[in-house]
Amino acid sequence: MLKKGFLLLVFWLGLSNLALATEGEKLFHLRGCSGCHEATKDSVGPALSTISQKYNRDLNRLMKFFKGQADPIIWPDKFRIMEPFMNMLKQMDDKDLKVLGEYILSF
Ligand code: HEC
Question: Contact 41/47 with Cβ under 8 angstroms?
Fold first, then answer.
C-alpha cells in the first residue's frame, strides 16, 4: 500500500515537472527567445545549455539578470543584441520569469 502511494507520488511529481517545463517552453517560443537561442548549439545567442552551465543552474541568479539587477556574464560584448528583449522580460511577472528560467536551466 505504502509502495503504491510512493509510486503515485513519483508519478505525480514527474507530471508536474513536465507541465512546468512545457509552459516554460511555450513562453520561450511565444516571446521569440527561440529565434536566437538554440538548445545545445551557440548561434546568435548562447545555447541554453551554455546559459545553464554558466549560471550553475542557479534560478535566483538568472532571475536577477531577467529583472535587470545583474549584469550579463556570458557574452557581455554582445549584450546589445539581447538588450531590446530585456524590456519584455522586465514586464513579465515573477511566475512567468520563474517558469521561463526553469526551462532554460533544464538544459
Ligand atoms: C535577437 C536575438 C536574441 C533574442 C530574440 C533573445 N536573445 Fe537572449 N541573448 C542574445 C545574445 C546575443 C546574448 C549574448 C549577450 C549576453 O550574454 O547578454 C543573449 C544572452 C542571453 C542570456 C544570458 C545573459 C548573460 O548572463 O550573459 C539569457 C539568460 C538570455 N539571453 C535569455 C533570453 C530570453 C529569455 C529571451 C526571450 C525573452 C531572449 N534571450 C531573446 C540574443 C537574443
Answer: yes
> What's 90's DSSP letter?
H
How many Å lie between the centroid of ligand 1 and the Cα of residue 37? 7
Residue nearest to atom 31 of ligand 1 (CA): 82
In the reported structure, the alpha carbon of residue 85 is separated from the centroid of ligand 1 by a whole-number distance in angstroms of 8
Range 2-104 has CATH code 1.10.760.10: yes
Amino acid (one-letter) located at 99: V
- The CA 13 to ligand 1 mean position distance, Å, reads 30
CB 72 near ligand 1, within 6 Å:
yes
Residue-level pLDDT, tens digit, the chain, 107 residues: 677 777 777 777 666 666 555 799 999 999 999 999 999 999 999 999 999 999 999 999 999 999 999 999 999 999 999 999 999 999 999 999 999 999 999 99
Vertex 94 angle, CA 65 and 25, to 5°: 80
Domain boundaries, the chain: 2-104
